[in-house]
Amino acid sequence: MKTIVFDAGPIISLTMNNLLWILKPLKKISNADFCITEQVKQELVDTPLNKTRKYMFEALQVLHYIENKTLEVIDDDAVRKQAYELLALANNCFSAFGHNMQIVHEAEMSAIALYLQKKADAFAVDEKTARLLMENPDRLHNILRHTLHTKVEKNRENLIRFRKITGGIKAIRSVELVAIAYEKGLLDKYLSNMPDSRKTLLESVLWGVKLNGCAVSKREIEQIVRIES
Fold this sequence. Notes:
Helices cover 60% and strands 11% of the residues. The chain is α/β, with parallel strands linked by helices. A hairpin with a 2-residue loop joins β4 and β5. The chain is globular, with a radius of gyration of 18 Å.
């Protein structure tokens, strides 16, 4: 079977748009295992329920899909070990104001480690920083410089090491997940009698995930709509 590893971001984006339910039919269609790490589960479920109290209902929704086996939680010593190594490496790639920049968190690095350990087929991640660190660190460097309005140093050796480890990872986003759900007719129940209802439906779900954290541009959304239309 195929394996798709999820970071917290896509699950949050789907949950906030009342679309978490699409994971079950997508899992069946793709004939894939949908996996998350224990650290991602802690971010999605344990912390909201037991510590912050914020997003408790969203946490219960995610827990439901863990308990019905749509999402499989994996806690593995080798994954934890590699996650710590990736975390240390990534957070020593850029520096500003005389300090290394903490640009990624343990949960997303654990998801990358799980992808690598399982030789997975796709990594679902919405957060721009992690994607750019893997795919285009020079662009990330420019974004950091413009965001902070200061000089940002980059550690080329660490960037090369990180890309060497993660360069082959195939990343997808929640925007691709909802586009596939649309293609497969999973969202047809939301079609209305209004003109251009299919286009409106697709635009609504694409913008919905964008506004809830998916790093996708307006231009990309327009391109997806043109292709699907």
